[in-house]
């Protein structure tokens, strides 16, 4: 078993070009012994953006833990809030825009 507090995990900047005002923390990763899934914590500051993108082979399970943002799938924009869950299938376009005045935080689980 492994236990750690999210603030003990180093902050990283996402590598996706065009991302702004965002940090991520790899809460559970391969280096921790995970074999099938990774769990990441994202924090998007007010005015922050994760641009529209997709992953051909990777699904995402996303759970909003705090705040409000706009989710953009390249066709539709919907507001997502604390306690919402999203399933992004492989190939689906997805983006978050934080137009609020508070940080937006979500957990994203991906296969390794």
Walk me through this protein's architecture:
- With 112 residues, the protein is mainly beta.
- The chain has a domain at 19-88 and 105-111: Jelly Rolls.
- The chain is 0% helix and 53% strand.
- The chain contains no helices and eight strands.
- The protein has strands at 20-28, 37-53, 60-66, 68-72, 77-81, 85-88, 94-97, 104-111.
- Strands 1, 2, 3, 4, 5, 6, 7 and 8 form an eight-stranded antiparallel β-sheet that branches.
- A hairpin with a 4-residue loop joins strand 4 (68-72) and strand 5.
- The protein is globular and about 40 Å long.
- 15% of the residues are buried.
The helix-and-strand class reads mainly beta
Number of alpha- plus pi-helical segments: 0
Instruction: Tell me the name of the CATH homologous superfamily of the domain at 19-88 and 105-111.
Output: Jelly Rolls
Strand content: over 45%
**Beta-strand segment tally:** 8
CATH domain class of the domain at 19-88 and 105-111: Mainly Beta
Q: What is the average of the pLDDT values?
A: 97
Q: Which runs of at least 5 residues are low in confidence (pLDDT < 50)?
A: none
- Report the helical percentage: under 10%
Radius of gyration: 14 Å
Shape: globular
Provide the CATH architecture of the domain at 19-88 and 105-111: Sandwich
**What letter string, H or E per element, gives the SSE order?**
EEEEEEEE
N- to C-terminal separation?
Answer: 19 Å
State the major sheet: 8 strands, antiparallel
CATH topology of the domain at 19-88 and 105-111: Jelly Rolls
